[in-house]
């Protein structure tokens, strides 16, 4: 499989070729009848005569429904996940909305030697010059996902640790690996909150469209992401819904609407810039679309730290305050355990035990009862234990511990790629002479370079979304639009025989 996909996808029996014993179920369905006819009518061929085969078109949804294979990034980038399709929808006159991730913003900033704020403003200019109607920043939807994740964790913790550790759900490579390889025993531990990509998709397609009276079938939503796995995520049936168009008086004219129509990687945006010979550094900086962007009235960006979304840090700080009344200073320093991709943080609480003693004073003619309170300090007890788990090897170790019932963490931020999302397969590659390690360190600095640290619960954009649309965190409406379910997929016999 292409190196552009995450290690979890590349190593989870999801091969980039179809072996003879692992025929694609789509191709079998598509040409089964023709093969049957050919077998009945086949004539003797000379050894030199080539066997005539025909290509079969398959979709990402077909691949997700099959446990046999996923083809390489170079050959499976379908019409709905390409630059050409994006430009075609602009030419159609559709209402094109672009949402860019902070990881992609940092990658472009490193490549062009700009700040993240400059990049976001120039990217806004770029896409609007092509015909996009709005450009948003997914830091806003990430805050929505973080708030819902905090609420979900508190609920699980208070239910006597039910389904703990809670595993983050923002990484589609990890989710695909869990569904296809790990099965039902691990899925209950995964958070039900959608990723920032799908959260902003839900906000646009279920709220913004209605708020401004737009036609759903004319709105084309594109995200810019650091990872090719995000293309797979956008193609999931769980993240689409149907509407009744009622065309020509027909009430049953049903149309499927995805929350995210297309995903472009950071590298593909660079390809777009270069293909049009655009001098990106000299582009003017446009005002930001503040409706779904973390930008204050002075034009400053704000958000949480953490190049992979800041899930562990945000949930940890919220849980410490909500459950134990402890205010935690951000950013948190996570301790390295096995390697730089596996780190942890704990909260220890010292409980005080009050003992009521009666002291008798025998020195006086009468007994005088004196009440004394003695405070006994009990050694600190670990009440919260969180971890960052990046990369496939660390991921496997955690999964093994959970399966054996020996995992003592309460929350784990899981990412399939080593170093997390900043090192996603869709990011711009290191320059000649620059190591991947040096580039990642540069991205970690740039990620928050001109971004003010802010608590998601204080985000006015998010608060407005709850007021106008969702109600409150964890509400039925929030669960309907911002939460999802996972499905264990049974491996095909052909796939198992091939790997055996």
Automatic annotation (TrEMBL):
Residues 433-490 form the Iron hydrogenase small subunit domain. It comes from the Eukaryota. InterPro entries: Cytosolic_Fe-S_CAF, Fe_hydrogenase, Fe_hydrogenase_lsu_C, Fe_hydrogenase_ssu. Pfam families: Fe_hyd_lg_C (PF02906), Fe_hyd_SSU (PF02256). One of its GO terms (cellular component) is cytosol. Belongs to the NARF family. This is (wild Malaysian banana) hypothetical protein. It comes from Musa acuminata subsp. malaccensis (Wild banana).
